[in-house]
Design a protein that fits this description.
Layout: H1 3-13, E1 26-29, E2 38-42, H2 47-56, E3 60-63, H3 80-90, E4 94-97, H4 100-104, H5 109-117, E5 120-141, H6 145-154, E6 169-177, E7 194-206, H7 210-220, E8 227-253, H8 254-264, E9 271-273, E10 280-290, H9 295-300, E11 305-309, H10 313-321, E12 325-328, H11 337-351, E13 357-360
Parallel strand pairs: 2-3, 2-13, 3-4, 10-11, 11-12
Antiparallel strand pairs: 1-4, 5-7, 5-8, 6-7, 8-10, 9-12
Helix pairs in contact: 6-7
The protein binds zinc ion.
Zinc ion binds near residues 65, 288, 289, 331 and 334.
Length: about 375
């Protein structure tokens, strides 16, 4: 498997265009144009993680936090950050970062966080992107119906909701055409009207896949000029966004829930922003990383408690004033991305028959300690 194949599969799952503007996602060091046998997944890339990668002989580091968040001004390797870049290049280790596109992806990092704390009936807390749908109707000789239909679904058409794929509809009928001028018809003769038993295949797909679907159509269709229609669908929208909100199975006090959060994420401590730790709560919003500024979205979704990291002092005052209880477990809870990514890549390893080894970094990159 090459790096390009692997990342093409990943970007189907978490397209780069879902990332926030200015977020440096994607390949940052090395090349994907090489075979990949070992992948190391990590939250952060620090010098000790690079050492781990070199020691384990990995070809690709897959990180949630981009390695180059700020551009380097020079490449003097006395600087530890620069030395990391040099070591990675020297050992031909590529580095790919999936940041806010992994946060918002359906069944991505924020869903993993929601599952970890056990919320149900989960919905998006703060919508950042909406993708419309299109419908393709294409006319194809009956003999080629299956070939074209399979090509379309392979290119990503025919997914309805999270649980159904390969959805399509076929009608049979008669197609008519007269090839003229310099036509080179697959079926029929110049200047003679032809009648062909044809099928009309209908499929829907997210509009950002239009170019890919059209390419699959042209590559699989036997005609010189395939007849097809594209429609805009009004009743399907895919929403993506930051944070998840849902309900705990039963009410619990803020105090007890804080203890649970500590246990779930194996924390030495956390910061609690509340006027009443004995208050009973049930509806919980969670957003990985540093997402204090999105607390109004948690309120709008009627969350009793909002879990996010790096909450700023004055924001905490505003949260209290607005009657929201907040748990700041630290930014490092995002390290559950290692398990989530490793599970995902292991599923693909099986479904795509890839000969790869997936390793989760076993280093703790949390810079904070409690005293
Ligand atoms: Zn983060």
């Amino acid at each position: 498997m090459t790096g390009k194949e692997f990342i093409a599969k990943f970007e189907e799952f978490a397209p780069m265009e879902l990332a926030e503007a200015g977020d440096p996602v994607g390949l940052q060091i090395g090349t994907l144009d090489k075979p990949i046998k070992k992948i190391l997944v990590t939250l952060d890339i620090r010098p000790e993680v690079v050492e781990e990668a070199i020691e384990k002989g990995v070809d690709l580091i897959f990180a949630h936090h981009p390695i180059m968040f700020r551009a380097a001004k020079n490449l003097i390797t006395d600087n530890p950050q620069n030395k990391m870049y040099a070591d990675l290049l020297k050992h031909n280790i590529a580095v790919y970062g999936a940041h806010t596109n992994l946060d918002v992806a359906t069944n991505g990092l924020n869903d993993w966080l929601g599952q970890a704390i056990g919320i149900k009936n989960t919905e998006i807390m703060h919508i950042t992107n909406q993708t419309g749908y299109k419908k393709l109707a294409v006319y194809v000789p009956k003999s080629d119906e299956e070939k074209v239909r399979v090509a379309l679904t392979k290119a990503g058409a025919g997914k309805i909701g999270p649980n159904y794929e390969n959805c399509s509809y076929t009608l049979e009928g008669t197609g008519r055409f007269t090839p003229i001028n310099g036509a080179m018809p697959t079926i029929g003769t110049l200047n003679q009207t032809e009648e062909v038993e044809e099928a009309r295949i209908e499929v829907i797909f997210p509009e950002h896949k239009t170019a890919k679907i059209e390419r699959a159509l042209f590559e699989s269709h036997p005609y010189e000029e395939p007849g097809y229609d594209l429609y805009t669908i009004e009743n399907f929208v895919d929403a993506y966004g930051l944070g998840r909100v849902g309900d705990l199975p039963e009410p619990i006090s803020v105090n007890d829930f804080s203890e649970k959060v500590k246990a779930i994420f194996q924390l030495e401590g956390l910061r609690l922003v509340t006027t009443d730790p004995s208050k009973m709560i049930q509806r919980v919003a969670i957003c990985g990383g540093d997402a204090g500024k999105y607390y109004p979205s948690a309120l709008k979704k009627q969350a009793d408690v909002y879990i996010t990291g790096d909450v700023y002092y004055h924001t905490a005052h505003d949260m209290l004033a607005d009657g929201l209880t907040v748990i700041d477990p630290g930014h490092h809870i995002e390290s559950i991305c290692k398990e989530g990514l490793a599970d995902l890549f292991t599923q693909w390893k099986v479904s795509e028959s890839w000969e790869i080894e997936i390793i989760q970094s076993n280093l703790n990159t949390d810079p904070y300690r409690f005293k």
